[in-house]
Amino acid sequence: MPDYRSVAELAQCAAERGLTLGRLVLADQAAQMEMTEEELLGIIDRRLTVMEESAANGLREDLRSHSGLTGGDAWRMHMNGDKALSGAFCARAMAVALAVAEYNAAMGRIVASPTAGSCGILPGALLPMMELHGAPRQQVCLALLCAGGIGLVIAQQATIAGAEGGCQAECGAAAAMAAAALVELSGGTPEMCLHAVAMALKNQLGLVCDPVAGLVEVPCIKRNAGGVMCAIAAADLALAGIRSVIPADEVILAMGEVGAALPCALRETAQGGLAATPTGLRLAEEIFGRE
Length: 291
Hints:
Elements: H1 7-17, H2 21-33, H3 37-58, H4 73-79, H5 88-105, H6 121-131, H7 137-157, H8 162-165, H9 171-185, H10 190-202, H11 220-239, H12 248-261, H13 278-288
Helix pairs in contact: 2-3, 2-7, 3-5, 3-7, 4-5, 5-6, 5-11, 6-7, 6-9, 6-11, 7-9, 9-10, 9-11, 10-11, 10-12
């Protein structure tokens, strides 16, 4: 895909060519990879299948991670879905996000989107669109490509690594990608997608990476549930015509600057934040023993 320097440039190219962001990324990526658009859609469809499989496997009641810290919460959310204050769609989104993240912690196969630590957010947003809103499978694949284009710019202009920019770079980026995908899948314009990106990312701005015992489980898994809710809220805001005062590209650059300013203890080292609480330290000792 061409080296888009900003999401604004991405949206401008889509507008000039009369394409959605997903269609633009599909055309450009297929040309770069020297394959047909149909062949590339087939690859994306297989990624979508892996997301569906990880969600189904992660919803098992008996699923547990190797550490014993996590597992079973996706099943609990799924079973409580009809009582959820947030409604059926949001409940399903949280259940899927938890399921994929828990399956990752249990060493299952997932799609890093954009990272393993944030792998539940994008499927949490998109799979319920198929299941509950009847979104066509090909359109969901195009929404994944839309998300990928946004993620590429974030990775180039800032970072998607928790060790470099905190959890805002992982769950924040994933929420931004998912928000854009939801807007496109709901018929929104590329400009609306960018406002959704901005609102999702700025609502995760400053989120630290503080994994208990250094494992991608606590609080990472539940942050996937929070991240998908952030994406849904941002998408709804954008689809309502609400605009972000700060442009998406400026939000992305601000995220990179905030990440660089975070102390080392809050960037995936398990030396600060929740990892350094009495309970966090006790759990680390129980899992790995006293140093």
